[in-house]
Amino acid sequence: MKEKWNYILYLIWFAYLIISAGLMFAHGFLLSRKSLSDVTECVPLSDFGCDGWEKGNLSNVCTDEEKIQRILSNPGSDIACPPARTRAVFLLVDALRYDFAEYDPRIKTPLPYQNRLPIIKETLDKWPERSRLYRFMADPPTTTFQRIKALVTGSLPTFVDASSNFAAIELHEDNIINQVTNGGGKAVLLGDDTWSRLMPGKWLRSHALYSFHTWDLDTVDAEVDTKIYDELKKNDWDILVAHYLGVDHAGHRYGPNHQEMTRKLQETNDRLQKIIEILPPDVLLYVVGDHGMTETGDHGGESKAERTAALFAYRSDGLGGDSGQRNVGIEVQQTDLAPTLSAALGRPPPAPSLGSVWLPILPKMTVLRTLLHLSNNLKQIRQYLIRYGEESQQVALDKLAHLINATREQIEKASLVETEQELNNFMNDVRGLIENIRIVFREVWVEFDSLSMLRALLLLLLAIFFNWLITEGVPMEHIPSIFASSFVSSGISAMAVCIGICYSAYHFELIEDLEHAIYLSTGLISGAITCTLVIMHWDGITQRWYEGRSLFYERFSRGALVASAAVLVSNSYIIEEGAGLSFLGLSALGLMAWNVGTIKALAVWVCCGVVLAITRSYRGCREEQGDCWTEGEGIPTGQATRAALVLALGSVAAVVAVARRHIGWRGYGIVLAGLFACAHWAVGWGSLGSPSRSRLLARGSWLVLITMFAMLWRKEGKGTILPLIACSLILYIANTLVLGVSFAPTAALALLTGFLVLNIVSMLRSSGNSKFSLSTRCSSSVACVWALFASYYFYGTGHHATLGHVRWAPAFHAGDPNYLVIGTPISAALVSLDLFGMPLMFGAAVPLLALWGRNGANNVGPRTQLAAVFLLCLKFSLCFGIRVFASALSATIHCRHLMIWGVFAPKLIFEYLTCAAALLGTIIGATLATWHTSVQQRSS
Q1: Could you give the CA distance from residue 232 to residue 237 in angstroms, rounded to a whole number?
Q2: Most C-beta atoms within 10 A of its C-beta, which of 57, 81, 199, 542?
Q3: What is the CATH number of the domain that holds 180?
C-alpha cells in the first residue's frame, strides 16, 4: 500500500499551511510598539550659568533658584537635573488590589481580604501630612512582566508582550534604574528575579529568587524579609526595590476569599509597620501593587478588579500637596510613577515615559522647583513625540504637530507662574495635556501590518477552499488512486524547492524577511498544486455534486459550524460562545438521531443533553457576563472541597472500571495510571495531606502514561480500534491530572459525550452497500458535530478565551519542572494540555468515527478504510481551519474596536492554539490508525 503514509504527510502538509498562515497573521496583527533606544540626559544645575543658558560660566555667582528662573524663561534650554535627591524604597507587593489596602471600620464581619492592612489607615489618620493612598490604575495586559516594564519606563504596555511574561528578556528602553545608575546612583534588588532578567548588571546588590512557582507562598517573601531590614540601615544605595510575591501566589492558588490570603496580608501589615518604624526620615517609601486580581485570584485581562491596584506613599519628613485624608482613593495612572520616582531621585523622566509627575507623593518643594520638574516632564515628552514621529508613522502628522505645539506652549507658560493658585492651574493643564497624549497613543499604539494580514487571510482561504473541494467533491473510491500517485511527493518537493530558493535569496540579501517569504511562497505553491488536483478531477467533482443529494441534518450540521464561526465577529457572542457551541452541537446531533429514527438513538441523544447540562456548572463565566461565579458559587479556585474530591475519584474510577475490560492488556496500564492519579489527589488533599508524596504519585502516573503511549505502537494485527480507544483513555487520564480535583469530572463528561456521539454516528446508515454507508459515516456533518463538541469542551472544562482565565497551577502539580534542563517546555506543555487537552483528545479519536460499530470501516478493504479515515480527519481539520479564518477576519474587521484587546485578540490567540491542538491530535490518531492496519488486510 504505497499511498498509506501519503495520507499522513498530506495531513501534516495541511496543518503546516494553517499554522504558517496563522503565524503570518499574528506577525501582522500582534505587533509591539516601536521601541526607541533614546536615553534622557540632564545637565547638572551647577553647569548652568547665571543666564540659564551658557554652561560653565563661573564669572557670576547666583543661587539655584535664580538659575531655575532663567532656565524656565528659556523654553529651548536643556533638561536640568533636579537639585534635590531623595532616596527611595520601592516596595512592590504583587497583586495588591486597592480594596486589600482599604480599611472600613463599618464592616463587622470582613471577608478574608478586607481590613487586613490597618497600618495604612492608622498612618493616614495619625500623619496625614506624611502619607497618601491612591487607586493605582494599570493598563492591560495585567501580567507582571508588562507591569514591571511599564512601571520603570512610564510607557504603555502592548498586548503581544504578554507572550514574554514568563521568559523576560533584557529591557533596552530607558527606565528608572537606568537613570539612577547613569547618574552615579546605586540600586539594590530583593525578591522577584524578573527585575534582574529585565535589567541585568544594574544592581549594587541583588538577592533575586525564581518567581513562577505560584504554589509557593512564602519562600520569596521570607528571603526578602531576611535582607530588607539590614538594607534599610545602610546608606550606600539610592533606590531599594523589594518585590513580594506571596499575595499574588495566594490569589493564584486559593483566590482572595481564603484564609491564606488573610495570612499573607497580615504578614504584609506587620512588615509595613516595622519598615515605617525604622525608615530613615528623609527616605521615601512607595508601597504599590502592580495589578489587582479577579474574584478567582487571576489576572492578565482588563477588568476593573485586575486594573485597580493600590499606591501607598510615606515619608517621615512629610510630603507635598494636600493632606492624605483628602485625596484617599483618587485614581493615579501607573505611567505616572516613572517620572515621579525619577524626580525624587534627582533624575529626568525616562525617555519613553508618557506619565506626568505626581507631586503629592514627592517632598514639599518651592514653586520654582515644582515648575522645574513639570518643565522637565514636558521637555522629555516633547522630545519623545519628535523622535517617535521620526521613527514611526503611526500618529498622523497633523495630530503629532498639534501635540508638540501644545507641549511647547505649556513649557513657555512655566516662566509666567508665580503664585500657588497659578501653579495649581498650571499643574492641571499639564496633566490634562499629558492625558490627551496618552489617549492618542493608546488609540494608535499597535501598528497593524495590513499586507501581512491580507496575505495570511488569502493563504487561509486558499487552503480551506481547495481542500473543501477535495473532501466534498472527489469520490471516496478515487482517493486511494490519487494518493498512490506522485501528488503528495511532488507537492512536498515543490515546497522544499521554495524554501531553498527563499534561503538563497535571503543569503544574497534579495529579501529581508525570510520567515514571511517562506510562508508566502509555500502557501501559494500549495494552493497551486491543490488547485491543479481539483481541475484534473473536476468532471468527477461536478458529477458527484450533480448526483448527490444532501439530507437536512447534513446541511444543518454544516450550517451550525458556519454559524459558530460567523458569530465570532460579535463580541457578545464570543463572550457567550460556550452556550452557543453546546446548543449548536446538541441540535445537530439531535437531527442525526431523528434521522436514525429509533428509540435507542433518541435515548442516547437525551443522555448526551443531560451530560452537557451537567457541564454547565463547570463553565463559569467571564467578567463581562456580570454573573461571574466566585468562591462558593461554582468550582473553587483553591483547595478543593470534599465533594469535589469524591467526584474526581469517582469519575476516574468509573471510567477505568468500564474501560479496562475492553482494551485487552492495555487496560492494566490505564488502571495503574488512574490509581496513581486518584492517589495523587487523595494523598495531597486537605491540610493534613502530604504535598511531596502527592507530587511523587503524579510523576508515577505520568511515567505510566508515557510508557503506555510508547507501547501503543506495538503491532498485534488485531485492528485499529483498540489502540485508538487506549490512546483516548491515555489522553483522558492526562487531562484529569492537569485539570486537577475541581475540574477532573469534566474530562469524564467529555469522554462520555464522545462515546454517545460515536454510538449515534454508528447508527447512521445509507441504502446500498457498505461503501455508501461508510460515505454517510464520513460525511462532513459528522466532522462538524465532532468539531463543535471538541470546541465546546474548552469551555466545558472551566476555561474562557481570556488571559485572566489561564490556570498556571497545572505546571506544578507534579513538582516544579523548572529545576530541570527542559523545565520551561514541560511547564508550557502542561499548561497547554490544561487549556487545549480536550481538542487534542477529540482530534486523536476522529478515526473512531469511521471505524466504530458494526457498519464501520472495518468491514471494507484496507484502502477504502484508510481513505475514509483520511477524509474524516481532513474534514475535521477543515472545521478548525474555518474557525481560525473567521477569528482572523473578525480581528481584522474590529482592529480598532473598543473590545479588540479584551475580546477579539484573545479569542484569535486561543482559537489558533485550539486549532493547533486539534490538528496535532488528528495527526496522532490518523498515524495510529495507519500504523495498525492489520497485515492480513494489507495482504488481501
Answers
A1: 9
A2: 199
A3: 3.40.720.10
What pLDDT digit, counting tens, does each position of 73-87 carry?
A: 888 888 989 888 899
pLDDT tens for residues 320-338?
876 555 678 899 999 999 9
Query: What pLDDT is stored for residue 940 in this prediction?
Result: 29
Question: If DSSP codes are grouped into helix, strand and coil, which group holds residue 58?
Answer: coil
Per-residue pLDDT, averaged over 729-748, amounts to: 95
* Amino acid code (one letter) for 112: P
Bigger pLDDT: 28 vs 221:
221
The string over 55-83, giving b where at least 16 C-beta atoms fall within 10 Å of a residue's C-beta and e elsewhere, is eeeeeeeeebebbbbbbbeebebbbbbbb
Nearest to 168 by CA among 213, 198, 202: 198
Range of the domain at 340: 85-364
Structural contact between residues 29 and 454, judged by C-beta atoms closer than 8 angstroms: no
Domain annotation covers residue 420: no
How many Cβ atoms from other residues are within 10 Å of residue 366's Cβ? 11
Cα–chain-centroid distance for residue 588?
Answer: 32
- Looking at residue 165, its pLDDT comes to 42
Give the Cα separation of 846 and 519 in Å (integer). Answer: 28
Of the three residues 364, 396, 430, the one that is the final residue of a domain is 364
In a domain? residue 910: no
Per the domain annotation, does 670 fall within a domain?
Answer: yes
Total domain count, the chain: 2
Tell me which of 77 and 605 has the higher pLDDT: 605
pLDDT at 636 over 50: no
For the residues 202-223, what does the mean pLDDT come to?
85
Between β-strands 308-314 and 131-137, what pairing exists: parallel, antiparallel or unpaired? antiparallel
Q: How far apart are CA 91 and CA 695, in angstroms?
A: 34
358/369 Cα distance (integer angstroms): 14
Question: How confident is the model at residue 46, as a pLDDT?
Answer: 80
Tell me whether residue 824 is in a domain: yes
8 Å CB contact between 48 and 67: yes
